[in-house]
Amino acid sequence: MNFHAKTMLTIVTEAVLENDLVELFEANQIRGWTIVAARGKGAHGEKRGNFDANENIQIELITNTARAEQLAEQIQLQFGQHYALVQWLSEVRVLRAEKF
Predict the structure, then answer these.
(1) Which InterPro entries did the record assign (predicted)?
(2) What pLDDT was estimated at residue 34?
């Protein structure tokens, strides 16, 4: 099997940003993403069990490195000053490169 190098952008942020981020992904022609509820502790406090409007989400999307870096920078500039937001990039290898 041949694996292809791609970059995964992971975003942990406030759930209130979900719709705005999805619009941004679509505007940047990102082909897919996964969003899950996230719990944890950081500089903006601790998120525990009972989720409500105050919950956090974790988003993962895979694309090429240039697009992932550009998107992360755009997200940071647009939302980073006003919302709890952590992002990181990971190099991943995928089987079906055409999906990303």
Answers:
(1) N-reg_PII, N-reg_PII-like_a/b, N-reg_PII/ATP_PRibTrfase_C
(2) 97
